[in-house]
Each structure stands twice: as structure tokens, then as C-alpha cells.
Amino acid sequence: MLARASAAALLATLLAACRVERSEPPAAAPADLVLRHGAVYTVDAARSWASAVAVRSGRIVYVGTDSIPRGLIGARTEVVDLAGRMVLPGFQDAHVHPIDSGVELGECDLSAAETPADVAVSIRAYAARHPDLPWIRGTGWQLPVFPAGNPSKALLDELVPDRPALMWAADGHSAWVNSRALALARITRDTPDPTNGRIERDPTTGEPSGTLRESATDLVEGVVPDRTPGELAGGLDRAQRLASSFGITTMFSANTDEDELRTFADADRAGRLQVRVIAALVAPGSGDTMLARLRDWRARYATARVRPTAVKLFEDGVIESRTAALLAPYLDRHGDAGTPVRSEAVLDPLVTALDRDGFQIHVHAIGDRAIRLTLDALEHARAVNGARDSRHAIAHLELIDPADIPRFRALGVVANFEPLWANGDEYLTRMTEPALGPARSRWLYPIASVVRSGAVVSGGSDWSVSSLNPLDAIETGITHRDPGDTAGPAWNPAERVDLATMIALYTINAAWGHHQERETGSIEVGKLADLIVLDRNLFEVPVARIHAVRVERTLLEGKTVFQR
Ligand SMILES: [Zn+2]
Fold it and tell me: What are the counts of helices (DSSP H) followed by strands (DSSP E) for the chain?
């Protein structure tokens, strides 16, 4: 019966196809929305262009020329004349911290401060505006603003004398605290550096000087009051509004604890979530306890738009603070090459267990040793568990040993870059390249080489580490300069890529990394209508103006979630 039924269906399909070719197409049910007279870059396999798209019940039902099939436009169809504007699939941010960063938007923002004096003005003003807050919290200070990236507790004591204060660096790997915060966390000259962390100290007295690196920041985090559910929900709302305004329809939440996961799930269950979320979980504990927790969360918090199917691991820190794990020593640190978070003996069984449980593993690895150890662990997991459709990812990938580049494709590992970082700023020229020398620096952010190797490369913002706007990153991936900058030579020019590649990083490639390329990531009939309208065609504006192109409208599953 089944065979006969499907044969009949096949015959019907063939007949229908013949009819379409030979005569007028049959009248279709009217669409909810028709966009026409546009520059529709579909990002399908052929990278084809169209001029019209129609959407019905949240899905794309037509992509083609402006000769819209009869019946698609009905009395209630919204018909938009795009007048040449561009349509793209919704952007997907493959590494971002939506809730944390949304919460931070409401706190003291230091990201624009260029001097210690600017920083001081912002903190003093914020503390004065919030006399009732028990803690003064902020984020976004740039390491190059302070000598050796090392701001002092003395300065913060002067700005916030009456309350504990905690200011996260823009990269999230260093925290700056005042004396009250140090006292509450019981950090003194006698406190040893924790594993994988460093308490910066006054070289003569040995007293903590006010800056904490990596796991040393946990000492203070432990005494900071938890965010309330209301604060987390407010953070998510700010984040998703901003994301929609930049055309982002899927976010990979790169570091999600249970409170954040519950915040996403609650928002979706209440019908307030306007972005798809793939959550990479971080659970307390280790071994079987941690695994049991992860499995429980994956089952309990999954909703239509929230997929808690990934796990986040850190394998090292960052090069600027000399906490990334390198294959050869930092040139300015006497034989010190940084330490990976986990040795092979710990990482391999952990990765193998997560892989066996069907989790997608998302590893922060910045130095060439951390990246190699991670690839080794993923290779080990594949040898033990067999090849699965796992699509594990390594994020950030600042310094890759060229010998490891072919391994991404060979192992089916997604290479997740933050292309905005390849801009030749002071983090690179002043704090990174001098510690590596020119030969190793050639392999900083080797995006073009990894793309050429045939690996799947996806793009992320790591917001609030850097701008959430994908167009900033898309421009910098092409220019290797700051958005809008046209002066001087491009940084590491051999690793630049073209516009089509950059768009793929934020659409179809990221969708593949999110296990949702069958539903999203390109504009094709049958896919979900996650679509954006841009005010200009990215292929027609000067490259240094790409960042200035504006998203005019964002649709999630056919529903408008942003309109300028
Ligand atoms: Zn991150």
C-alpha cells in the first residue's frame, strides 16, 4: 500500500511539474506577505538572486521574478515594493552572550572610554546616578587604556569609595575591583593565585593591585549578589530588541547557566521571544553529576525556539593577558607559554562523554596549543564513539598552527571566528604581535585559509565583547580595518575574504552549525521566513560603508519583529 501510495504521489508531482512548465501555474492560496522589486540574495547553493519573495503561514512559498504566480496576491496580502532594496536571510550570530550583555546595557558602560580619565568620568557619573545600588557594576573597559592592561584599585577606590565596585574588561577575561570588593572576597596578599587565574599584584608589596584574570575573577563573582529573574528578563528584552534591529534572527548563547536558560524558555513560553536561541550550557559540578544536570536541563527547558543542545567549555584565556595556551612561549614572558584549562587526560574523556550524550560541544580556544588540544579531543571522541553528525565548534581561533587548519574539515568541526577582531587594533599590534613575533603573527585569525581548506566557517560577535551588528564584522572581514576606516595598509591582508563569503558566515554556514540549515539560513521555498530587508544592496555600496547599511525590517517566521 505504501509503495503504491507513494508511486501515485510521485506521478501526481510529475504531472504537476509538467503542467507548470506548459501552461499557467495553478492558482495558489494567497500569501500573507509579498516582497517585490527587490535585490533578493538567496544564499542558496547556487548563490542565486531573485527579485520577489512570498510568505504564507511563516514559511517561504515563492522565490523568483516579479511575475508573481496568479493567486499569491489576495485581498489581505501585504505587498511591499522594495524599490531595489536588498533582502537577505536573517543573520545568525554563532557566538554571543545575549542575557549578560543585555543586563550590562543597563549598567556602567565603559566601552567608549579611550583614556583612564574617560573611564573615571563614566564610573563617577554612574555611581552618582545610582546612590541606592549596593554594588557598582560596569563593563567594557579596554585593556590598552591602562598600562599593561592593569587598572589599579586605588583609582577605583577614589571613584567609588563607599561601596564595592566590579568593572569587567571588554573581553570578559579580566575584572577590575576596588578595595571593598577585594575585602568582601577575602583576597589579600596571602591569597594564592587560583588554578588558571592570576591576581595582579604590586611588585614591591605583593598586595593585590585591583585587576583579576580568568578564574581569579570567580573569587569576586562569588560575593556579588545574583541577578534577579526580573533583571535577567530585562536583559533578554534589551538584547533581543537590539538583535532584531541588526537583523539577527538566531543567537547562539555561548555561555548559558540555568537561570539564563530558564529566562529564555520562560520568554518563549510567554510568547515574548523574538529570536531563535541555541544555548551552550555551563553546569556546575563535574563528571556524572554535571552530565546528569546537562541532560536534565536539555529536556526541561527545550521550547519551540530554545534548543539547549550545546555545552560550552573553555580551554584557555586570551593572548593579551598572556592566559592563552600557546605551542611556543610568549616572547615577553621567559619560557611561559600559558596553561590550558584542561590537560589531554581530562579533556579527552570529558569531550568523549559529551559527544556520546549527543551534546554539541562549543570550545573557547584562542592559542594554538588550546586549539590543537581541542582538535585532538574531538578526534579522540570520534575514534571512540564513531563519526556522528555532531557539528562541534571551536570558537575565537585567534592563533592556529597552519598544520591544524586541514583538521577542521577532516573532523567536521565548525570554525567559529569573530571577524571584527581582525582589525589591526591595539589589542593586536601592541598587546599580541610583540609577544608572538612576525612569523607566528601571520597565523592570527587565518579566516581565508580556513575557508579555503573547505571547513565550515561561521561568524559570531561575542557581544558584549564587541559590536553585535553583523555588518560591522562583515565589513572588517573584507577590509581587515575598523569599520569605516580606509586609511593605511590592511592588517594581515592575506586572510581577508570577500563579501559573499562573509554573508555566508552569518547565514547558511551559521545555520549549519546550529543544525537548522534545512529550516533557515537561505531564502528557499519551504524554509521558515526569517528574512531581513536592508536599505541598500551590500554588493553595491563601497566596502567601507557596509557598516552603515541599515536593517529596515526583520521578520521571524513571517512575523515582523523589527521595523525602522
Ligand atoms: Zn564568548
Answer: 19, 24
Q: How far, in Å, from the CA of 396 to the mean position of ligand 1?
A: 8
Distance 135 CA to ligand 1 centre (A): 24
Query: Please, how many CA atoms are within 13 Å of residue 206, restricted to the half-sphere of its CB?
Result: 6
* CA 395 to ligand 1 centroid distance, Å: 8
Model pTM above 0.85: yes
DSSP alpha helices (H): ranges in 280-322? 287-300
Question: What confidence tens digit (pLDDT) does each residue in 311-320 have?
Answer: 999 999 999 8
DSSP class of residue 29 equals P
CA atoms in the 13 A half-sphere facing the CB of 247: 25
Question: How much distance in Å is there from the Cα of 15 to the middle of ligand 1?
Answer: 52
Q: Where does the pLDDT of residue 488 fall: very low under 50, low under 70, confident under 90, or very high at 90 and above?
A: confident
198: helix, coil or strand?
strand
User: Is residue 329 scored above 90 in pLDDT?
Assistant: yes
**What is the rounded radius of gyration, in angstroms, for the C-alpha atoms of the chain?**
25
Specify the 3-state DSSP secondary structure of 454.
coil
* Per-residue pLDDT at 106: 85
Query: What b/e readout covers 428-445, taking b as 16+ CB neighbours within 10 angstroms?
Result: beebbbebbeeebbbbbb
pLDDT at 21 over 50: no
Cα-to-centroid distance, 154 and ligand 1 (Å): 29
Closest among 357, 266, 260 to 303, alpha carbons compared:
266
Find the 366 Cα to ligand 1 centroid distance in Å: 11
What's the 437 CA to ligand 1 centre distance in angstroms?
26
Q: How confident is the model at residue 116 (pLDDT cuts 50, 70, 90)?
A: very high
Whether residue 111 is preceded by a cis peptide bond, meaning omega within 30 degrees of 0, is no
Sign of the torsion formed by the C-alpha atoms of 53, 55, 58 and 59: negative
Distance, CA of 152 to CA of 150 (rounded, Å): 6
Q: Three cell numbers at 536?
A: 541598500
As a residue count, the chain comes to: 564
Q: For residue 379, how many other CB atoms are within 10 A of its CB? A: 16
For residue 464, say if its preceding peptide bond is cis, omega within 30 degrees of 0: yes
Give pLDDT tens digits for 169-205: 988 889 999 999 999 999 999 999 998 899 999 999 9
Q: How far is the CA of 470 from the centre of ligand 1 (A)?
A: 15
H-helix segments, 390-462: 405-411, 426-429, 433-436, 438-441, 447-452
Report whether 272 contacts 245 (CB < 8 A).
Answer: no
Cα(393) to centroid(ligand 1), Å: 13
- Please tell me the distance between residue 2's alpha carbon and the centre of ligand 1 in angstroms: 49
Interval between CA 314 and ligand 1 midpoint (Å): 10
CA 97 – ligand 1 centroid, Å: 6
Answer whether residue 392 shows pLDDT above 60: yes
Check whether 26 has a pLDDT greater than 70.
no
Ligand 1 centroid–CA 151 distance in Å is: 22
